[in-house]
Design brief:
Elements (H helix, E strand, L loop, with lengths): L1 H24 L1 E9 L10 E6 L6 E5 L5 E6 L3 E8 L6 E8 L9 E3 L18 E4 L2 E4 L12 H6 L4 E4 L2 E4 L2 E7 L2 E2 L4 H9 L6 E7 L12 E7 L6 E12 L3 E12 L3 E24 L2 E25 L4 E26 L3 E17 L2 E9 L6 E25 L9 E6 L2 E15 L3 E23 L5 E2 L5 E20 L2 E18 L4 E21 L2 E12 L3 H4 L3 E5 L2 E4 L7 E12 L3 E11 L2 E7 L5 E7 L2 E16 L2 E15 L14 E13 L3 E10 L2 E3 L2 E3 L2 E12 L4 E8 L7 E7 L2 E9 L3 E11 L21
Parallel strand pairs: 1-7, 12-15, 33-37
Antiparallel strand pairs: 1-4, 2-3, 2-5, 5-6, 8-9, 9-14, 10-11, 11-12, 12-13, 14-15, 16-17, 16-48, 17-18, 18-19, 18-47, 19-20, 20-21, 20-22, 21-23, 22-23, 23-24, 23-25, 24-26, 25-26, 26-27, 26-28, 28-29, 29-30, 30-31, 31-34, 32-33, 34-35, 35-38, 36-37, 38-39, 39-40, 40-41, 41-44, 42-43, 43-46, ...
């Protein structure tokens, strides 16, 4: 009996000691839930926290008016956080570490979109195109079609995006390209080259912001942010991607990403290589006074693209983190071009032919470095982020031209002449930003400053040889240096009043520019200050009815090629030239939207432009035409956009996005929209269909149509394309195999008509667009998942300038 009592006493003592131990291990943790676009604290968000390492633990709590949740956890360790909130996509974050050094979870940013009020462990199908409130998301990783494509072609599939003269516009607005929130710093042909060399298989998604807030640079209209695929796993992990494709020529690509992560550090890097060859065919007929000039050009470009990255994120104490990211690419491009120009006089009578054969080589190196520091100052959500950026762009460009001349009988009537073009370019960009977030009792205040400095040096050197030796061609040679300094300060204030969400902001930018044409001894200086207000009002009547209204003022500082007065030689009869006296455009943009059941939406866009950029064409000597740029007075663009995202059956999801718009451009003397063709309306329809066959198979069919429209002096004819892709998960979910066919009917071409100041030109540009690609991706390494925070830096104002 005595022994029994003694045993019971021991058991009671042990239980008591265990209780004390458990209590000692218990920790109090916090976290903050915010809106991803405006950093607005979300009150009443449902947070579910589940244990991953110990006995089952699950608790559901709601956030307070500051978006803050607090609770006690039984033990330190890894936990899963799931968040649901009406009007937002369900968010799940695995492997969140809580211990004595990590008492606060990283701020969770909720994306607007479809609501899923089921358990947080439920996974839902992602549509390729998702239309949200002031955001359009392309889920590239979910698209079999994108497997063998590139970033440029994927962006063109977005509803509202149109390519015009190697530039991407969205609903008539200029666009600014970001990569992981960082400026790409390129524009025109250089931007296109960079995006076409970026494999879509390395992209997670692409986000389009039609009316970005004052946090973003005032430069440009819509923001297009390319978010690269990131690894979410603890330990050391690898992603191997390889593919092969064919059109007229065979292409191949391969890449390896390596990621090492522990509770405090994330070290990652990667390398990719792509070889491709593609042709471009251009036919044009130019009508001058009593002269008709026909030109046929066939351009074959061979590219070897090398991409690399190396980054580190280090968590100092759970509230402070530092890191860097070095990335860039080295591209080699060879091209061979044959251009035949036939001159006719008087009613199509054949006169003479000029045949130009071009061989060219270019090497482009574009490293960039970002260093950042981020600190959560307290539990209320005060945050400070510092970013320092440096970018270097170096281009070696060499072309050799051989001109042969033939008479009407096909006989060579003069000796050939030769041209050489050596056009190196160097660009350096320095940028520093500081952003601070201060929650208030009734809202959230965000302020920031930025300064950037850019210097670009183009030294274009031409030589000619008509049989007597190489001489400097003074008419084409030009050394041009352009310097730009932009200093900015901004503030955003966000407040929610019952069902109303209001975001007001103001950005002030001071710009200093110096353009120096050393060859022509022309020096132009400019300095100005401008104010860029924005306001966004949202009204959520209920989960099925959401209304939005926004206004934004922006500026468009033109690419350096636009302000550089050097002459670009295209062929014997065509040249282009920049204008150093060009002034920046000012845009006023307004948008009204309505979303029903988070599946159907209608948006009205209006944009009024002042000092709008327009192309001008001048008749030069010897039947040449020189294209350049000028400031027109105004432009007006209006769009009506619809969107429907619907599951037609259990296995069939459809995203239908029709648009209809009006575009006009006027200068002070002449309405350049008046010509032989007065079409001013534009229609566009994109339809994306996703088919799922059990958990392993996914197929996709996409169709795009753009009707004829006119903008300025150009009339663009109908464009149509269709793409198909299918993918299968293999090797126990570690591998994925994708097959895609782009432009199935080989119908995509760019047909335009130019009518300006008596110069009439019909132009047909047919790039190679039909490809068959097979891509294989294999993931191997540790399987413990931990979400990586997305980091952004701020070289936004220069991203599509160079």
């Amino acid at each position: 009996m005595h022994k029994m009592k003694k045993s019971k006493a021991i058991i009671i003592v042990l239980l008591f000691l265990k209780t004390i131990t458990i209590s000692a291990q218990e920790i109090n943790v916090t976290g903050t839930i915010k809106d991803s676009l405006a950093s607005l604290a979300l009150q009443g968000a449902e947070v579910t926290i589940k244990g991953m390492e110990t006995a089952p633990f699950s608790k559901i709590i709601l956030t307070d008016k500051e978006g803050l949740f607090k609770l006690a956890l039984p033990n330190p360790g890894l936990y899963t956080i799931g968040v649901t909130f009406i009007g937002y996509k369900t968010h799940t974050q695995d492997s969140v570490l809580f211990d004595e050094a990590h008492l606060s979870a990283p701020t969770i940013l909720m994306l607007p979109g479809h609501t899923n009020l089921q358990a947080v462990t439920v996974t839902t199908k992602k549509l390729f195109i998702v239309m949200g409130t002031n955001i359009i998301t392309l889920n590239v990783a979910q698209s079999p079609i994108a497997s063998g494509s590139n970033a440029y072609d994927v962006i063109k599939r977005a509803p509202g995006v149109i390519e015009q003269n190697d530039n991407l516009s969205f609903r008539g607005k200029s666009t600014r390209i970001l990569i992981n929130g960082r400026a790409s710093n390129l524009t025109g042909e250089d931007l296109k080259m960079m995006l076409t060399s970026m494999q879509a298989s390395n992209i997670e998604k692409i986000e389009i912001l039609p009316t970005p807030s004052a946090k973003y640079d005032a430069q440009g209209g819509a923001v297009i942010n390319i978010i690269l695929a990131k690894n979410k796993l603890y330990g050391t992990n690898y992603v191997l991607t390889t593919g092969i494709g064919t059109g007229k020529y065979v292409s191949e690509n391969t890449g390896l990403d390596v990621n090492y992560r522990n509770k405090n550090m994330n070290l990652y890097g990667g390398y990719s290589f792509e070889h491709n060859q593609q042709y471009y065919q251009t036919n044009s007929i130019r009508y001058l006074t009593a002269i008709q000039l026909k030109a046929n050009e066939y351009d074959v470009r061979k590219r070897n693209n090398n991409g690399y990255k190396l980054g580190l994120d280090y968590d100092i104490n759970g509230k402070k983190s530092i890191g860097f990211l070095l990335n860039g690419y080295v591209n080699y491009r060879d091209r061979k071009v044959d251009n035949t120009s036939i001159l006719h006089y008087d009613k199509n009578v054949f006169d003479s032919t000029s045949m130009v054969h071009t061989t060219g080589k270019s090497i482009i190196k574009n490293p960039s470095l970002n260093i950042y520091y981020k600190a959560t100052l307290d539990t209320t959500g005060k945050e400070l982020t510092l970013n320092a950026d440096y970018m270097h762009y170096g281009k070696q460009w060499n072309d050799d031209f051989t001109n042969n001349y033939y008479d009407a009988k096909g006989q060579q009537y003069t000796t050939p002449d030769y041209l050489k073009d050596n056009s190196p370019a160097k660009i350096k960009v320095y940028s520093f930003t500081a952003d601070y977030v201060q929650p208030t009792k009734k809202g959230s205040l965000e302020i920031g400053v930025k300064t950037s400095y850019t210097i670009t040096d183009n030294d274009v050197f031409w030589q000619s040889n008509n049989g007597t030796g190489w001489l400097t061609d003074q008419g084409k040679t030009n050394h041009f240096i352009y310097k730009e300094n932009v200093n900015a300060v901004y503030g955003n204030y966000t407040r929610t009043i019952k069902k109303w969400n209001i975001v007001t902001g103001l950005r002030v930018e001071q710009t200093n520019t110096i353009s120096n044409s050393i060859t022509a001894s022309q020096l132009n200086k400019n300095s100005y200050v401008d104010f860029f207000p924005n306001i966004s009002v949202g009204y959520t009547k209920n989960d099925n009815n959401v209304f939005g209204l926004s206004y934004r003022k922006s500026i468009n500082r033109f690419g350096f090629d636009v302000v550089n007065p050097f002459i670009i030689y295209e062929n014997r009869y065509a040249y282009s030239q920049g204008n150093p006296n060009i002034k920046p455009e000012i845009y006023h943009t307004a948008e009204v939207s309505y979303t029903y059941k988070q599946a159907y939406s209608i948006t009205l866009d209006y944009m009024h432009g002042i000092k709008t950029l327009g192309e001008i064409y001048l008749a030069g000597a010897n039947n040449t035409t020189i294209s350049s740029y000028a400031n027109y007075n105004t432009s007006n663009i209006f769009y009506v956009s619809f969107s429907a995202n619907k599951s037609l059956t259990k296995n069939w999801d459809i995203s239908l996005n029709p648009m209809y718009g009006y575009m006009s451009l006027k200068n002070g003397v002449q309405n350049v929209s008046s010509g032989t063709n007065k079409k001013r309306w534009v229609s566009q329809v994109s339809c994306n269909n996703t088919f799922s066959f059990n958990k392993d198979w996914v197929a996709e069919l996409s169709v795009m149509y753009i009707g004829p429209f006119q903008y300025g002096s150009y009339t663009t004819k109908t464009m149509f394309s269709s793409d198909f892709g299918i993918s299968k998960t293999i090797l126990k979910n570690k591998g994925n195999l994708k097959l895609s066919v782009s432009d199935i009917f080989n119908s995509l071409s760019y047909n335009k008509q130019l009518n300006y100041a008596g110069i009439l030109t019909d132009l047909k540009n047919k790039p190679e667009s039909r490809f068959i690609n097979v891509t294989f991706k294999y993931k191997f390494g540790n399987k413990n998942i931990k979400e990586k925070n997305q980091r952004e830096s701020k070289m936004n104002d220069l991203k599509n300038r160079i």
